[in-house]
Amino acid sequence: MFECKLEQAVLFKKVVAAVLDIVKEGNFDLSDEGIRVQTMDTTHVALVQMELKESAFDEFRCDRESCVGINFEALTKLLKLCRDDDSLSLKKEEDCDTVTITSAG
Known about the structure:
InterPro entries: DNA_clamp_sf (IPR046938), Pr_cel_nuc_antig (IPR000730), Pr_cel_nuc_antig_N (IPR022648). By secondary structure, the chain is of the alpha+beta class.
């Protein structure tokens, strides 16, 4: 199982927005060290490498490394529904390929 929580969604929103400027899709590599993205743009000119360490989160748990495909355009639209000061939680069950995103304010 993977789950993490940020008390303020603004950090995650800004990181995703920065990645979206360059790439539309990529993978979240989930590990006990944090969330990592490494992907090329469609023209193979730019490499995006981003890491949010587990210490950046208010709560963090990762029982086993896994990888989840992310459409950053869709994720950005979803995150626009969150206020900057809302809390944001991401959760992935062990045998599931989807991430559940919850916002509360």
